[in-house]
Amino acid sequence: MWNITEVALQLPTSTASDRLLQPLWDYLLFQHFTLVSSPFFPVLLAFSSYVIFRVPFTILDVLGEISSLFKYKIQKERRPTIMPMLRTLGTDDLYNHLVFVLPAVLITNVVMPTPPIPAVAPTVWELISDGLGVLLIFDAQYFFWHLVHHKNPHLYRWVYAIHHDYISPFSWSTQHLSAVELTTVGFWSNIDPILLKCHPLTLTVFSIWMSVEEHIGYDLPYSPSHLVPFGLLGGAMAHDIHHQKPSSNFAPFFSHWDRFFGTAVTVKWTKKIDKWCEKVLA
Ligand SMILES: [Zn+2]
Ligand SMILES: [Zn+2]
Question: Which chain regions cross the lipid bilayer (predicted)?
Fold first, then answer.
């Protein structure tokens, strides 16, 4: 067990501009050390992040046409109701985390103990570079896992199909996954930051935000996919297209793997396919 006095003695001498997050990290260490040092901290952080990140998009979905942002809704004719939101909260979030994720964390901690808690906060640069590194590795892992589960009918049926229950994704459908997929994704989310020696603050917050953002069902103008140039990020539009036309856009965050393997479909291509289908069926 850590001694708080030791923590104080180990505090860095770096300038305040280097460690903007130090006050936050100090607060967590000194006020909530038991929580931060717990092997369950990543699970609690992930679970609470998923719930908090969904709140603004839940409000948007409930408001519907009343909201001025409804014009950005991708599939306006398919609006989620409260029932599927409550169902995903009960079965996908609470049940799956209690029954599958927590035991998986316990086993992982026996096999690979978590590294010691650092006394210093990451610099902003470390937070961004480590977060980007984790995103890129997870993106590659999930792209190939996702592609294989779509191509193999048995894997699709028994492991993956549940995620495609919803043709029109909404923020709560992010975690509408089978237990196998949830455990696999959870394992990568835990192991990738450890392999990259990331600070605990970096953890999975970046990838959780991106996962929720790609499922919101709104192509918002200031979303990361519009702010990052050259279409490097897929964003909500790309993943919405995947839920409508599941042979495209397999990568969760970036677009480079889909471009390389020829599975990238943008909204322009989708409109062309729709027009072509209309002509053929007419
Ligand atoms: Zn999805
Ligand atoms: Zn899929």
Answer: 29-53, 94-112, 132-148
Among the bound ligands, the one closest to the CA of 216: 1
Q: How far apart are CA 158 and CA 148, in angstroms?
A: 13
Buried b (16+ CB within 10 A) or exposed e, 45-69: bbbebbeebbeebbebbeeeeeeee
* Shortest-distance ligand to the CA of residue 166: 1
Q: Which two tokens stand for residue 228?
A: 């990052």
User: Which-ligand-closest: CA of 177?
Assistant: 1
Q: Which residue in 8, 84, 94 sits closest to 43, CA to CA?
A: 94
**How many other C-beta atoms are found inside a 10 Å radius of the C-beta of residue 178?**
18
Distance from the alpha carbon of residue 150 to the mean position of ligand 2, in angstroms: 6
CA terminus-to-terminus distance, the chain: 71
CA distance 46 to 1: 24
For the chain, give every domain's residue range. Answer: 22-281
Q: What is the pLDDT of residues 227-276, one digit of tens each?
A: 888 889 988 999 999 999 888 999 999 999 999 999 998 766 555 555 66
Span from the CA of 246 to the centroid of ligand 2 (angstroms) = 6
Question: Which numbered ligand comes closest to the C-alpha of 167?
Answer: 1
